[in-house]
Amino acid sequence: xxxxxxxxxxxxxxxxxxxxxxxxxxxxxxxxxxxxxxxxxxxxxxxxxxxxxxxxxxxxxxxxxxxxxxxxxxxxxxxxxxxxxxxxxxxxxxxxxxxxxxxxxxxxxxxxxxxxxxxxxxxxxxxxxxxxxxxxxxxxxxxxxxxxxxxxxxxxxxxxxxxxxxxxxxxxxxxxxxxxxxxxxxxxxxxxxxxxxxxxxxxxxxxxxxxxxxxxxxxxxxxxxxxxxxxxxxxxxxxxxxxxxxxxxxxxx
Amino acid sequence: xxxxxxxxxxxxxxxxxxxxxxxxxxxxxxxxxxxxxxxxxxxxxxxxxxxxxxxxxxxxxxxxxxxxxxxxxxxxxxxxxxxxxxxxxxxxxxxxxxxxxxxxxxxxxxxxxxxxxxxxxxxxxxxxxxxxxxxxxxxxxxxxxxxxxxxxxxxxxxxxxxxxxxxxxxxxxxxxxxxxxxxxxxxxxxxxxxxxxxxxxxxxxxxxxxxxxxxxxxxxxxxxxxxxxxxxxxxxxxxxxxxxxxxxxxxxx
Lengths: 253, 253
Fold this sequence. Notes:
The structure is a homodimer of 253-residue chains.
Chain A: E1 4-9, H1 20-28, E2 31-35, H2 36-40, E3 49-53, H3 58-70, E4 74-79, H4 88-98, E5 107-111, H5 116-124, E6 125-126, E7 132-136, H6 144-156, E8 160-164, H7 174-185, E9 191-196, E10 204-209, E11 222-226, E12 232-236, E13 239-244
Parallel strand pairs in A: 1-4, 1-5, 2-3, 2-4, 6-13, 7-8
Antiparallel strand pairs in A: 8-11, 9-10, 9-11, 12-13
Helix pairs in contact in A: 3-4, 6-7
């Protein structure tokens, strides 16, 4: 007997940015696995059960969810943002590949969501308007030397960079180290955006240059976007500046 | 007198993936600018007017929209997917920066959407589960040499690659050339996903290896995802394979 497993992204935290598809998956599920603060955003019925776990326990959570679904339950694994971007979908697939054959037969649906960098970008203009990348600064799951060489490669190639997991209590130094590397490669006038808790009541968005970028402005809920050498800041009287990356390079617009 | 300008992303095409925020912006607008097929997806009231234009006329469309909003109208510029990813938000900002000062005072709201790569990724698993980038293959707006060097840099650095605008009638050769470059850098066993019209009635998703990747499978509505050397294919009896990029590299999971 095989149940159903949804892996759902609820978006950055503003309910207006959660898709009807995600809401329908939540409505159809009976057991919910996720990081507590993400589960707290859901409005559940009395017949819907939640199993909260810490945000460093993704693989164990994924196994529990697959096990529960394989036993016939309708299960929902909840991520903020998009589940496929530094979130639960990859953990579920890792567990599925390593687990018993029955887990591969679970009816699996992954429901995309608005990921943080898209929400932050929309708040300030169009910094991701040209080629860009998303890199996690967490070295829990990869060596710092790999992160360092990736930052050099993408900045040197002219891509805009969105940094996920820029900082945590256990990793206070990575973002400052990343800015130091990027200052070796990029003009110090390159725009940097700190986007925290976009669309939520405690939202804080700020734009500055790479020279000014101060890592202590970031926390776990922050997505940091670093422009390319082409990225521009447009000042406005009495309004916050806009930031965008032009669609064209090397040609007269 | 200054109106209002929304730049809205409706997602990949399935109405269930359009956010309430996008629907509210559409509801609040009176004049709609966009590529005809994107405007066709909207259900408009008799008092709402549409101005369709070709998909090679983004800058002219952006100017018209800003001009109309600055004259006091409530205007909506419509993109498929996310407006900040190879879409209208950057064109609006380019026009705004170069235009009359009044355009900077327009009340501007950019509404994010599910961009194609997230929707394609969700259909097959979690290929964007680790560091990744998004690159447009169109050389209408940048030299082909830049595209080539970016492909080499990001593939060499181990990022998963999502290719937007992989091919068009005017540009039939780029995707084949991109695969040829990537075959020099990546293992030929690297998974490649062709995701066409995700979530729409004519959806077509296929997974193969870089060795097998055939550029003629792509059209303008296709987003192509090329894995990193870490990306894995998980076979399932009687079900389509899953594809994911593990969260960790260089460490035993």
